[in-house]
């Protein structure tokens, strides 16, 4: 190995290095590989820009619905003042949703319509869509918002034009008690069918035996008017 290395060095001493020379390029080729990719990128940009504008600019004749997110439900407010916990829209008509949140950050997500937009406290965002097929579609919250985030679910009810007109003209058959409970968000933690959520169910809650903890000891008392009033207030 030593002898081979020495031989290589001796040969290198007697061989002259080639003279440096300028390497001439190909002007036409350089223009092609610069201009063509630039034109492709510009074309992709404008194609994407048109799609973005179509996504963000709702048609002027869009049906306007206000959406309020709160832990852990959605409320939909229609132009006539009625409110629902599920969204009702006509098929084939553009619908613009004006979103906000009354507490923490939420994200309104309808996978079937490929729309997802944040509902932010103190500001209004918007999204629009046009449902092409009658049916029911899931609404989710895509932003973690607390212990019952996974249960912040609702539905988009897409109706025919005649069905939607009848729905708008129909009475909102909700009892006064239900209206109060929904207004104050009671259904987020309590049920009316006996199922246990974050808090106890309202079913048969009046004058039943309940166990309370006071100073480390359990007591059984009746849920009378005073107990319910103090629990609520």
Description:
The protein has 233 residues and is of the alpha+beta class. The protein folds into 2 domains: 63-169, Cupredoxins -  blue copper proteins (Immunoglobulin-like, Sandwich), CATH 2.60.40.420; 176-232, Cytochrome Bc1 Complex, Chain D, domain 2 (Orthogonal Bundle), CATH 1.10.760.10. Helix content is 29%, strand content 29%. The chain is built from 5 helices and 12 strands. The strands form 3 sheets. The protein has a 5-stranded mixed beta sheet, with no helix packed on it. Strands 4-10-9-6-7 form a 5-stranded mixed beta sheet. It starts with a helix and ends with a helix.
Number of helices: 5
Q: What is the distance, rounded to the nearest whole angstrom, between the alpha carbons of the first and last residues?
A: 94 Å
Kindly report the name of the CATH homologous superfamily of the largest domain. Answer: Cupredoxins -  blue copper proteins
What's the story with the biggest beta sheet?
5 strands, mixed
Which series of helices and strands comes N to C? HHEEEEEEEEEEHHEEH
| CATH hierarchy: architecture of the largest domain | Sandwich
Helix/strand-derived category reads: alpha+beta
**Which ranges are low-confidence, i.e. pLDDT below 50, for 5 or more consecutive residues?**
none
User: Helicity range of the residues?
Assistant: 25-40%
